[in-house]
């Protein structure tokens, strides 16, 4: 999850991806998918095998969604006559695999998992993914309108549908029920209430800290995004960088001040594992982060406060509650595939209501509103968390970082502002202006042809 000059924007972006991926390490393997699964949906009509003899290659990340979909494949193959050859790779190796093959103009894989907000724009700008706009509305039973607006926004590039969502996440507020109850504090609904509650509960002498979140320069960017949106700001407006606006500065100041004044020691160097770790030790009152990480604080084997954790909507600022609500993983089609119809049939099936129900029951948060409305669709999630996810998906913003090709560079520019607040800088306008100029330069380079 975790450069570029003029016309060389895309090629250098590829080099950066390859370098990062090669540093990742171990190799993933293939899977022959011999396990039997439940009845899939969204495929061809019963008894009809329009893809008899067709074969496609599907590349997945080593991700719980990939493990959930594999046992369902044999019935899809039996129903359509299609053979799906699956290869699985660790996350950064997946990027390496795809980059190498796409750079070589390979027609395989036909379908692949990808991270829309991390590499989606690069893949699309390089012509590696096939726009899918012509497909979703061909079959009314697919019900494309069932996908949340924000999830589709995450997989849209330059107005074109570059993929279909499979995994979503939103930023939420986690809190200690017992600490709030004992202090007579209501669950914060606004940013001001969160700051006041964190201040009241902060007691370092007892090793209780008011607030924790990601403090590392790049990792913090995705989480400060909801603060920015909720104050009415954004990282950019079209092709104009906007991280030095009053709204953005207020958001960066709030986030940085919460960590500086009410955070635990060492918070400047924390990413999500460290932040969740100290919360799970029972030492923090509040944490804001992705809902997908809830198991780190609700699992009794990982958390000392597993029975004391509450979930709430992200606190509202001047713009209301505007958490990010993103597609963290999607399915895309190789632009060079010779099997576009077969590839779409697979994507359609894998993202159909029936199959999303099954993968979501395995704990993979999907993008279909109808599945979240089913009692059987939410069995894999804490009951208190479900309405928070549903509401966040309705009001949330479709990105959690600058939507650029050079994501790493852009995140560093944004993160610098917050870290200066954490370091005690009281007036960050100058820092924000410099960061905004840096982000604008990144965007201009990315947009150069």
Automatic annotation (TrEMBL):
SUPFAM superfamilies, per the entry: Periplasmic binding protein-like II
Keyword Transmembrane listed? The answer is: no
What are the protein's UniProt keywords? Signal
What are the boundaries of the signal sequence? 1-23
Question: PANTHER family of this UniProt entry?
Answer: ARABINOSE-BINDING PROTEIN-RELATED (PTHR43649), DIACETYLCHITOBIOSE BINDING PROTEIN DASA (PTHR43649:SF12)
* Name recorded for this polypeptide: Sugar ABC transporter substrate-binding protein
What is the species of this protein? Paenibacillus oceani
């Amino acid at each position: 999850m975790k450069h570029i000059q003029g016309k060389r924007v895309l090629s250098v972006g590829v080099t950066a991806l390859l370098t990062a991926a090669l540093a990742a390490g171990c190799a993933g393997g293939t899977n022959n998918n011999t396990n039997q699964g439940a009845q899939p949906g969204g495929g061809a009509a019963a008894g009809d095998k329009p893809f008899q003899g067709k074969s496609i290659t599907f590349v997945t990340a080593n991700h719980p969604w990939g493990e959930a979909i594999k046992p369902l494949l044999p019935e899809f193959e039996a129903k359509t006559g299609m053979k799906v050859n699956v290869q699985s790779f660790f996350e950064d190796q997946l990027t390496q695999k795809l980059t190498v093959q796409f750079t070589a103009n390979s027609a395989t894989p036909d379908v692949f998992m990808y991270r829309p907000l991390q590499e989606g724009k690069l893949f699309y700008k390089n012509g590696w993914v096939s726009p899918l706009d012509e497909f979703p509305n061909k079959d009314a039973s697919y019900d494309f309108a069932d996908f949340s607006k924000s999830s589709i926004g995450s997989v849209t590039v330059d107005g074109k549908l570059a993929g279909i969502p499979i995994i979503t996440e939103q930023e939420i507020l986690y809190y200690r029920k017992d600490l709030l109850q004992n202090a007579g504090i209501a669950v914060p609904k606004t940013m001001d209430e969160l700051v006041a509650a964190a201040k009241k509960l902060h007691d370092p002498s007892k090793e209780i800290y008011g607030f924790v979140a990601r403090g590392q320069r790049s990792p913090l960017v995705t989480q400060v995004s909801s603060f920015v949106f909720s104050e009415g700001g954004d990282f950019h407006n079209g092709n104009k960088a906007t991280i030095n606006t009053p709204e953005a500065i207020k958001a960066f100041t709030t986030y940085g001040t919460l960590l500086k004044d009410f955070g635990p020691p060492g918070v400047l160097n924390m990413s999500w594992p460290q932040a969740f770790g100290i919360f799970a030790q029972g030492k923090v009152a509040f944490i804001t982060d992705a809902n997908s990480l809830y198991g780190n604080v609700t699992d009794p084997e990982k958390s000392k406060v597993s029975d004391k954790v509450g979930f709430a909507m992200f606190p509202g600022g001047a713009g209301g509650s505007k958490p990010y609500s993103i597609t963290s993983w999607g399915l895309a089609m190789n632009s060079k595939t010779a099997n576009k119809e077969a590839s779409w049939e697979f994507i359609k099936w894998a993202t159909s209501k029936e199959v999303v129900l099954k993968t979501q029951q395995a704990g993979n948060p999907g993008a279909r509103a109808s599945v979240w409305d089913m009692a059987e669709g939410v069995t894999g999630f804490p009951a208190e968390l479900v309405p928070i996810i549903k509401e966040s998906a309705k009001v949330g913003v479709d990105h959690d970082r600058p939507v650029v090709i050079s994501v790493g560079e852009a995140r560093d520019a944004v993160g610098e502002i917050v870290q200066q607040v954490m370091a005690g800088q009281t007036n960050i306008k100058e820092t924000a202006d410099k960061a905004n100029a840096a982000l604008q330069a990144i965007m201009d380079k990315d947009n150069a042809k």
